[in-house]
Design a protein that fits this description.
Length: 329
């Protein structure tokens, strides 16, 4: 059995401590996608983070491995190592060049969404004016498909996400997004979006963030309730887990350089407060998720689908696409 966490965040700093990754591994996680940057991070910071994370992984090969295939993940689990890839949250670090997608793939990025809450030249954010996928965005979708990268729609505007899912030739995922029907937050996804994702063959992975789960102190039962909603709506084969735990580390300042305005990216009008940050499920919640999912009525096999096999299926298809790079450089 492979437990797959579709999205987690260390500090955006090349010296980030990987202790949280070890905690996830100790809790039973076999694979995690680590964020290496978003639309608010200049490319200099993104590249510095990628270089630092790669160096940390390479320096401890008995514990970590940067992977590029599902077979690599299965082997890593057999070897007792944590399998890791990277993800990018937004198209701005792509510099309006679809060719940049191939470069990020070579560096270990295996998952990309195009907008972080706000609009850019490629796509719409979920907290901005709806416009739809731009012509550049269409070319970016093609580049993501061609390079064997998971096309993600988290943080993306509703109309735009539907257009991305319609444009993609491969399954599309939401790596960390919850049902809007359960919690009415603009970052959550509607039944229409969930159904469209399932129609591509994709997976909606439940976030463990308090704002999106509707619980001030989120736990395994909260995550399981949201996963069960997705399973009931579109089938258990389209539900997954991406806890989106953001690990802070004292002494590391990962604030984006330059004119950074948190209120722009997390607007008060959308329900965010700089005075009351969200809370997250702890990594150890992974130990409790199998039982929590069974409490919703899932069988052991159905729980295994949600905890990893669904994302394994999608990654197996996408990462082994005809033009996908065989190995991370």
């Amino acid at each position: 059995m492979i437990n797959w966490d579709a999205h987690a965040c260390l500090p955006q700093h090349p010296l980030a401590d990987f202790t949280p990754v070890r905690r996830l591994h100790a809790a039973g996680v076999n694979y995690v996608s680590l964020n290496v940057g978003a639309d608010m991070n200049p490319i200099s910071q993104v590249m510095s983070v990628i270089a630092g994370y790669r160096a940390t992984i390479a320096a401890d090969p008995e514990r970590y491995v940067l992977v590029s295939s599902v077979d690599d993940i299965i082997q890593a689990a057999a070897d007792g190592r944590m399998a890791i890839t990277f993800d990018l949250e937004g198209a701005i670090p792509l510099l309006e060049q679809p060719d940049m997608v191939a470069l990020y793939a070579q560096l270990g990025v295996r998952q990309i969404h195009f907008a972080y809450n706000r609009n850019n030249s490629a796509a719409d954010g979920c907290h901005d004016v709806p416009r739809g996928l731009t012509p550049l965005g269409h070319r970016m979708v093609q580049a993501v498909n061609d390079n064997g990268i998971l096309m993600d729609c988290s943080h993306t505007g509703r109309l735009c996400s539907l257009e991305i899912m319609n444009a993609s030739a491969q399954p599309v995922i939401f790596s960390h997004a919850n049902p809007y029907t359960l919690v009415q937050h603009g970052r959550n996804v509607t039944d229409e979006q969930i159904r469209a994702c399932a129609a591509t063959g994709g997976v909606v992975c439940v976030s463990g963030l308090s704002f999106f789960l509707g619980s001030e102190h989120p736990c395994a039962d909260d995550v399981a309730r949201h996963a069960a909603y997705i399973a009931d709506l579109v089938g258990v084969q389209h539900a997954g887990i991406g806890l989106d735990i953001c690990f802070q580390q004292p002494g590391l300042d990962d604030t984006p350089p330059g004119a950074f305005d948190p209120g722009h990216w997390w607007p008060a009008s959308a329900g965010y407060s700089m005075d009351k940050p969200p809370s997250f499920t702890p990594p150890e919640v992974w130990r409790e998720l199998p039982a929590a999912l069974r409490k919703t009525g899932m069988s052991d096999k159905e729980a295994e689908l949600v905890l990893g096999r669904n994302m394994m299926r999608v990654a197996q298809q996408v990462w082994s696409g005809p033009q996908a790079l065989a190995k991370a450089a």
